[in-house]
Amino acid sequence: MAEKKKPTAEELFEDWEPETVEYDPEIDGDEEHPIRDDLLKEKEELKDVITRLKEKNRGNRKIRR
Fold this sequence. Notes:
By secondary structure, the protein is an all-alpha fold.
């Protein structure tokens, strides 16, 4: 039985040439960044609300870490 030799990475990619991919907002969609900014703003607002509620719930007690 003859064993088959696996090709190395160099052999597989010896004739491969990388190409530069350009970003085009019309094709790729440009709404992801505004959505992300809105989500980050909402996250900051919710963190502030949670912090205030925790402080209110804690009252005069001290936190030890």
